[in-house]
Write a structure and sequence with these properties.
alpha/beta; EC 2.3.3.13; 2-isopropylmalate synthase activity; single chain; eight-stranded parallel barrel
Length: 420
Amino acid sequence: MASLFTNPAIIPVSQLTSTNPTRFLLYYNGTTATKAPSIRSTKSSTPFTTIFCSATRRPEYIPNRIPDPHYVRVFDTTLRDGEQSPGASMTSKEKLDVARQLAKLGVDIIEAGFPAASKDDLEAVRMIAKEVGNEVDENGYVPVICGLARCNKKDIDASWEAVKHAKRPRIHTFIATSEIHMKHKLKKTKEEVIETARSMVSYARSLGCNDVEFSPEDAGRSDREFLYQILGEVIKAGATTLNIPDTVGYNMPNEFGQLIADIKANTKGIENVIISTHCQNDLGLSTANTLAGACAGARQVEVTVNGIGERAGNAALEEVSVVMALKCRGDQVLGGLYTGINTKQIIMSSKMVEEFSGLHVQPHKAIVGENAFAHESGIHQDGMLKHKNTYEIISPEDIGLHRSNESGIVLGKLRYIIPN
């Protein structure tokens, strides 16, 4: 994999470690904006204490319930929505390699593809289900393998045929619920859409799949009362996860957070399912909307490595998972939420997806961009040489990076000048 790393100043941290962290928290001791952070003893040079909990802390997997109310499932759709990016394409072998890496990363659910789209996609999903979906680690972790399906029997049959070989299979079915989609795309009435959704969720359960996710496509532009109604019906039909997509990236964070809160407060039977988010990045707000949804009660987040996906892409796994794990804001803003992501696998996952998809990460991309931990400004270099936490709130080692230049200093026209 050495060829994946184009920046000579950044190389992957050795994976020879006995630690398999599943809960990554950074503690900040400051209590006010004016109080300086206290520094605890830690391998990191930042004022945040890194805590790695053992893999046994990952809650038991139950399709419609999470024993720990603070745990947020990570649903990775790199191999489905991510591959829908214009110009992106992976071979079946590359998809299998990415799925194995996602398992190392510790994602809870891998949406491996859209089996009804083609025979090749069905076979790729089936291969992932058979191999990655049955590799149980020493702590009992094995990812759920999911296939996407429209609300029709042909799609659902193909999805089940592909994922049923996994230890934990899931069918994810969807139908549009916004007025513009129902009128112009589906040409169906609200009553017809509800009946289709209800009957197809029930059909998926009848096949023997006890883990069925339902998405009301374009929920971000759908009528609230209609959403409550259709979601209540699919819960009765057997849905275990309700995914709420901002399909066209239309919502602002406060709007999307309120949408999740309203669904949680007004949908009959909502206490018996997991609420999920799927936020597109058309207005550059996918990560913000995803976090707003989690704060409002969503306990599954749908993301992709490097944020790849339709149009402007999706919420990026590395942004959502790392930001959610920042205990420096967690107690104040995010209510102590955490994920099962092994953060030391983030950079390897990013580089693999970049290589296989052919979609390059811009240098200034948060967390995984080449410049994310580089410092050229003399002012910043001065601070970094004196204390790294002056300009770095995350240690690069915590996401699997090791810099050959310990301070991340890059020489340029704004290079550091040694003071007299």
